């Protein structure tokens, strides 16, 4: 969600999909493996991100535009399964 708001982020990744997404939006340098990161590495990336935040925001904005329609479609599909009271429609889910 932060990326859709053009918010620069550092990711602690435990799955390739996170690394892939960060690469896609130009933030591959800001991914740390959750099993092998160190405080020093995290601090270095946060400091760099703070210094370059304005440029990073512009880059994120340009790159996430193609994700927005797909995400809206997914949300529409999920919300179609839920009625106005927040309950799952019985057609799709039965407790």
Describe this structure in words.
- The protein has 2 domains: 3-64, no CATH class; 66-95, no CATH class.
- Helix content is 49%, strand content 6%.
- It is mainly alpha-helical and 95 residues long.
- The protein has a two-stranded parallel sheet.
State the separation between the terminal residues, measured CA to CA: 29 Å
How many strands? 2
Give, in spatial order, the strands making up the sheet with the most strands: 1-2
Radius of gyration over all CA atoms, rounded: 17 Å
Shape category = globular
Multimerization status? single chain
Total of DSSP H or I helical runs spanning 4+ residues: 4
Please identify the structural class as seen in this structure: mainly alpha
Our estimate of the beta-strand percent is 5-15%
- Count of folded domains: 2
Order of helices and strands, N to C? EHEHHH
Which key phrases capture this entry?
95 residues; mainly alpha; 4 helices; 49% helix; globular
Short synopsis of the structure:
This protein is mainly alpha-helical and 95 residues long. It is built from four helices and two strands.
Walk me through the topology.
Elements: E1 11-13, H1 16-24, E2 31-33, H2 39-51, H3 53-64, H4 68-80
Parallel strand pairs: 1-2
């Amino acid at each position: 969600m932060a990326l859709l708001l053009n918010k620069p982020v550092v990711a602690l990744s435990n799955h390739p999909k996170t690394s892939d997404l960060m690469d896609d939006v130009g933030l591959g340098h800001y991914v740390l493996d959750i099993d092998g990161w160190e405080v020093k590495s995290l601090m270095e990336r946060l400091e760099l991100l703070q210094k370059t935040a304005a440029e990073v925001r512009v880059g994120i904005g340009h790159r996430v535009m193609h994700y927005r329609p797909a995400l809206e479609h997914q949300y529409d599909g999920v919300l179609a399964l839920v009625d106005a009271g927040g309950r799952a429609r019985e057609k799709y889910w039965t407790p």
